[in-house]
Amino acid sequence: MDILIVMCIGILVGRLPLLRRMKKKNEGLSLLCTFLLIFAMGVMLGEKENFFEELSSLGFTSFLFFLLPTGFSIILVYYLTKVFMKKEKNSEEREEAK
């Protein structure tokens, strides 16, 4: 919940006209914070004693977290495209017939 509050505050602050002029500096600061976050995550992973043993199971789990949502998204988009594009084609054919 704290993350959502911080994100909402960030969105509201980003809407201020004063900060729009400082966009380049803000982008640089965001990039620096992202690098710092990735570095800190790497340090935390490096501190684990059995990191390399866990890496294979972690990699497989990550692969499943990628594959399942992607696969279901593709199937859902394909199905919805078939349903709605079919309706759109039928309405276009009716208009041409008139």
How does this structure look, described?
By secondary structure, the chain is mainly alpha-helical. It contains 4 helices and no strands. It has helices at 2-14, 17-20, 23-47, 51-97. It comes from Evtepia gabavorous. Keywords: Membrane, Transmembrane, Transmembrane helix. This is DUF340 domain-containing protein.
Average pLDDT score = 83
Which percent band covers the strand fraction?
Answer: under 5%
Would you report the number of β strands?
A: 0
Radius of gyration, in angstroms, nearest whole number: 24 Å
- What is the share of helical residues? over 70%
Provide a count of the helices. 4
Cα(first) to Cα(last) distance is: 56 Å
Organism: Evtepia gabavorous
Keywords: Membrane, Transmembrane, Transmembrane helix
Transmembrane segments: 28-46, 58-80
Protein name: DUF340 domain-containing protein
Characteristic key phrases:
98 residues; 2 domains; mainly alpha; 0% strand; 4 helices
Task: Outline the secondary-structure elements.
Elements lengths: L1 H13 L2 H4 L2 H25 L3 H47 L1
Structure summary:
The chain has 98 residues and is mainly alpha-helical.
